[in-house]
Amino acid sequence: EEGYAYCVVAKETVGKQISIAFLERVKADFKKRCGGGKAGTAIAKSLNKEFGPVMKEHMQYIIDHVEEIEKLLKVKAQVSEVKSIMLENIDKAIDRGENLTTLADKTENLRSQAQSFKKQGTQLRKKMWYQNMKIKLVVLGILLFLILVIWLSVCHGFTCSNN
């Protein structure tokens, strides 16, 4: 990082997380003490006197506080897990929002189709009613015509007498 490589050699029993915690502490302290170009202009091994005891202090701190560091690392892991779950839930919520938008569009489409169907049904009902009335009027006209024809044939005209 920033041109520096940080590494640690440790026994396997120490665990990677403890080693990483040590490196993080050393890196932060190194940046604080030797930042701003001081380390960049230093000659090889010239910082050993100044930074060697500091590294020893960090090692001792890590050894003395292993349980606390492990608890802290567990909490960090849990926070990271919760964060990833929350991000996943947010993604799902966004997907649901898109699905809701699609569903709303489909609902609007169905509503407009229902209105169109209702309008066509009303028009069809009126058309059928008019056709029915036409048929009834034609039948009535035919009946009246037949009655007139029968009347005229029985009465021999429009004046009918009882003779």
TrEMBL record:
Broad class of the protein's primary localization: membrane
Topology in the lipid bilayer: Single-pass type IV membrane protein
Pfam families to which the protein is assigned, alphabetical: Longin, Synaptobrevin
Residue span(s) of domain V-SNARE coiled-coil homology: 71-131
Matches recorded under InterPro entries: Longin-like_dom_sf, Longin_dom, Synaptobrevin-like, Synaptobrevin-like_transport, V_SNARE_CC
Keywords, ordered alphabetically: Cell membrane, Coiled coil, Endosome, Membrane, Protein transport, Transmembrane, Transmembrane helix, Transport
Transmembrane segments: 135-154
The keyword Kinase is assigned to this record: no
Domain Longin as annotated: residue spans: 1-55
Record localization: Cell membrane; Early endosome membrane
One cellular-component annotation, GO: plasma membrane
GO biological process: one example: vesicle-mediated transport
Family: Belongs to the synaptobrevin family.
PANTHER family: SNARE PROTEINS, VESICLE-ASSOCIATED MEMBRANE PROTEIN 724
Role summary: Involved in the targeting and/or fusion of transport vesicles to their target membrane.
UniProt name for this protein: Uncharacterized protein
